[in-house]
Structure formats: C-alpha cells, structure tokens
Amino acid sequence: MTIANRLKLGLVLHGVGRGWQSWRHPEAIIDGSTNIDLYVEQAQLAEKGLFDFVFVADSLQSPIRKLLSNTSIL
Asked: Name one GO molecular function term (predicted).
C-alpha cells in the first residue's frame, strides 16, 4: 500500500468534552479547555496510537461589546 492510499487518523481535542453539557459530568476536568497539560497528554496518547494529527478548534472569547467597539461596520 502506498502512502497516498493510507488511511489518515485524526483526533479533535475538546477540552472538557465533546458536548455542551460534558463539563457537568462528575469526572470532568473543569479547566480542560484551558489546561495545556491535558492537551499535551491527549496529543501524546494520540501519537502513541499512531494518529496522524490532532486538531484543536479555537474560538473567539471576547465580550460582544468589546468586539463591536474594535471593528468598523461597513
């Protein structure tokens, strides 16, 4: 099998979980979304499992008023 035909495996890292209510689980890591050590640990596990990549979705965390005051609306 050539490299071009090989299946690629990826892991999406979600911090506290994959759902909106995951943070409420009794075993949830509450600071998971901002805990760099957790992301490193999960990335290392993915590497050990021979995953090809990990993905961390970022998001804008700014109050809407501040965002609107810093942009021009055409």
From this structure: oxidoreductase activity, acting on paired donors, with incorporation or reduction of molecular oxygen
Which domain does 31 fall in, by range? 10-66
CA distance 4 to 54: 19
CA dist 68 and 72 (Å) reads 8
CA 68 to chain centroid: 26
Domain count for the chain: 1
Place of tokens 């690629």: 8
Sequence letter at residue 7 = L
Looking up tokens 């979705």 gives: 57
Chain mean pLDDT for the chain: 79
Rounded Cα gap, residues 68 and 74, in angstroms? 12
pTM exceeding the 0.90 threshold for the entire prediction: no
User: Residue 43 and residue 64: Cα distance in Å, rounded?
Assistant: 32
